[in-house]
Write a structure and sequence with these properties.
By secondary structure, the protein is of the alpha/beta class. It has 11 helices and 5 strands. Helix 10 links the parallel strand 4 and strand 5. It is elongated and about 90 Å long.
Length: 243
């Protein structure tokens, strides 16, 4: 895209193009330079700089610098604000909750990560990370998965349920068989600490995040707080394994 509103770049000589490239790549510095400073840095003469300024239709060097200064102010890109997650997304007691959950995982023989819909990939992600640490972990993203049959005659089991609302009907039905089973601990990761699944769980790792849906009802809510919980839990487990 042409700078200074000048579009006929083909009319510029090689010397002009050298000045053009230097000015466009260093516009924040050029506004404080003299003609001879630009000439020295562009490796041309001062007269070449002035000819270039007149060729791109500026009457004087001050007018040229004023244009650049104003253009920098109006065209300066907005600095990105990285505010995807902060203290407002995570409860103050999350550290103790994570430690309790990590101890439960550490003592378990079998771990199931349950997630449906948008949470399916998070269940798989969490399962893969825990498996990398050496834990027997299975992701369950199928609401008809025979989890009861898989865990029958086993002990020291832990089930993680991922649900934004904590009201996912398929998950409720799937874990209902284990609510009163002493050999199974249920951990819920949800944004609703008062949900049905949270009440069915022994431990609740909750977070705070506004839900965001498109007009077609697709859920675009941020899952970064969930990723934070998963990775913090893995970090605690890794430290436990190293001790």
């Amino acid at each position: 895209m042409a700078y200074f509103g000048f579009k006929d770049l083909s009319s510029l000589s090689n010397i002009d193009l050298s000045i053009y490239r230097y000015v466009t790549q260093n516009s924040d510095k050029v506004v404080y330079m003299r003609v001879r400073d630009i000439a020295q840095n562009a490796h041309v003469s001062s007269s070449s700089v002035m000819r270039f300024i007149h060729k791109i239709v500026f009457n004087s060097f001050p007018e040229f610098k004023a244009y650049i200064k104003n253009d920098n102010l109006t065209m300066k890109p907005e600095q990105p604000k990285f505010t995807y997650i902060n203290e407002s997304n995570i409860p103050k007691d999350i550290a103790s909750k994570l430690m309790i959950s990590a101890n439960a995982v550490f003592e378990s023989d079998n771990i199931a990560m349950l997630g449906m819909g948008d949470f399916a990939f998070l269940a798989e992600y969490a399962a893969r990370r825990m498996a990398s640490l050496g834990f027997n972990t299975t992701p369950v993203t199928d609401p008809f998965y025979p989890l009861l049959a898989k865990l029958r005659n086993t002990t020291n089991n832990i089930i993680f349920c991922f649900s934004v609302t904590g009201e996912t009907a398929e998950l409720i039905e799937l874990i209902n068989e284990f609510v009163n089973d002493e050999d199974v601990k249920i951990v819920c990761i949800t944004s609703n600490g008062n949900s049905t699944i949270a009440k069915m769980s022994r431990y609740v790792l909750n977070y705070f995040e506004k839900t965001h849906h498109l007009s077609n009802n697709y859920d675009m809510s941020s899952q970064i707080p969930v990723m934070y919980i998963i990775e913090r839990l893995d970090h605690i487990l890794e430290n436990m394994l190293e001790q």
